[in-house]
Amino acid sequence: MGTAATDLPPARGLASTWWFPKPQVGNTHPGATAPLGMVSACAYSGAYPTGYGLYTKNTEGVPETMFERMQASGFTHFQQSGTGAIRKYYNYVRVTPMVQPLDALGQSWPLSDEEASPGYYAATLGTGIRSEITVGEKVAIHRYTFPAHSSARVVIDLSCGGLATELGRTVPLRAQIESMGYGRAQGTVVMEGVPLSVYAEVDSPGWRQMLWYDRRLIDGGTRLDFDSIRHTNLRPFGLLFMGSTRPGQTIEVRLGFSLRGNDQARANLERECGSDRPAFTAVRAKTRAKWREHLNKVQVEGGTTARRTVLSTALYHALIKPCFADDESPFWPDSGPYAFDVCTMWDIYKTQIPLLSVLVPDRAADLLESLIRVCEEEGNFPIGYRMARGADRFFRQASALAHTALADAHALGTSRIDWAWALVHMVDDLRRMYGEDFYEHGVVHPITHTLDLAIGYHCTARVARALNDHRLAADLEERSKGWINAFDPDSGLLRNSEFYEGGKWNYSFRLLHDMRARIEVAGGDTRFIKKLDRFFGFGADPVKQPGRRPPAAEMAAGYALKRFEGLNNEPDMEAPWAYHYAGRPDRTARIVHSALTWQFGTGPGGLPGNDDSGGLSSWYVWASLGLFPVAGQHLFLVNTPAFGSATVQVPGGEFHIETSGHRETPIGVDGIDHEPPPLYVQEASLNGKPLHATHLSAADVHRGGRLHLRLGPEPSSWGSGIRPPSLSDSLFPEDTR
After folding, report:
1. Predicted structure pTM score
2. What is the DSSP letter of 9?
């Protein structure tokens, strides 16, 4: 799901009015991964952006293909999942099973009979070699089944990296590789400033083992060293194992990885493989068990098979990234968590980090601790962070996003973080980059950063207040009111500015920390709802989506619609829930139902756009459960769930979501027998007590409990009176809101 260009039934109703300018492709890969593990492995074609598949880089419409067929030149390690615009990405240590001479290394063969499941990937190359891969947290195990051949071989290429796109190649800076005796070798290659070490064991009885350079064998050589490699002098290099095979003979390749040297790479391999030789079956079983444990944390009842499949796959995608490599940081010597592939906070802070906080709270805390350490080492919180020297900050995307996750973690009582240490970095980070202008003038362009920073000040103030630094908290709270400087009081929308993907309509309906005042800027509930209705296409005609190579005029006409991009863009993920703050949760229900029904499917083209490291899939999980986390505000908004009931394992036990009156709506169908589906909450209760508000505190969810929702086919008055909390509520104590 998500590995191919979007291929969904034509939307009807409200969803048909949404317009998707960004690439209509999920950009996921089917490779073997472990839950939030360090290593992934997949077939390598060099395609954008993961190294797997057919597609080239594109920024709008339906993606173009690089190749006419599914193909691979081998199997590489370390891939991104679902990202949009990147220049290059990993794909290190290519392993290629061959029955051709070494001169053929680098050519691609057709792929067929692909099979993928959590922790496992398999495919047959055009050469007839069946290739299977499984991974652990820091290891990858390959198993190749050969046809009969007098000169079969397995080639390990340490010089490979990046993508087969313009500017997509990664060139090593330094490298060394050493043959350690029969069936064993080790090496380190410095890629983008990071020393990636690998320890290899190859079970190939009777085969020869040799180093090679520039596709020429080095007979008898045991070590290669490269002190300075450049684009101009790079020649491929690596290891080769060669011998005859009988029909169906298998060769196992075991690889242990580390960012702290060969000895640790070997220790990682020995720890995860234990005494099992061959190790493939045992490692696969362990990883499969870990996936089962993680995926079982969300259980649903009811729903069609397709909806359950999409939910399970979405949960799987949400638990691939970020990567955690404990005790592996190449940049600081301490033990402890090291998280990378935060690509990017802009994609994951609203939906995925809150999901990790519920399902794997220890890992969520590890992520925040790692980000604090990055800030300490490099001077600021990164917006994006890869396994590379220097943070990929993506500064144009956003500012101060780590602050939202930190504030939520503190409110939940996360004790593993030194909060005094964290607060120092939170405060300092607010005055760097765009923050300097905001601090001095109260507004900054791109105007969206004004909102980011105001929210960041609010989140930091919450932590400061809780730590009893009331003077600091008061100053931060005052500056957090600067969000209002971003809005034009005449239009009720954001001021004209540059925007990172999307326009001012996409960004104007963010869930701010003072939504009450923000709605007043728009002219009150009625005018705010009218603007939301226009944005979401209520009453509008269906639109045509961009195709391949859409002309400029077509794109300009689409942007002129000023329309919801239907989860094809990050700013739109939270916008449907803005209705909650204006007393119209029924509108939210209709929009979310339309998205769940028309924008997701079970096939390779089942995602409406980039999955973005699991950010989009996390949205699907929350929306299916009938909840939405408001990042930085310790808050969940309540909506109609997609299943009759659900149980989520939370830190405090289990959170049950039950419904009465639920009726299943299949994917791609407006209703059943032309009857309107029961989209709307009529009344609600939490732990047996009436719930008149449309929100819960995050603590309510994390401690466990039982939420019951009675549903019906028509909107009700539920949620129209008590609104989710806003910063300025205390100014109007007489109001029931």
Report:
1. 0.97
2. P
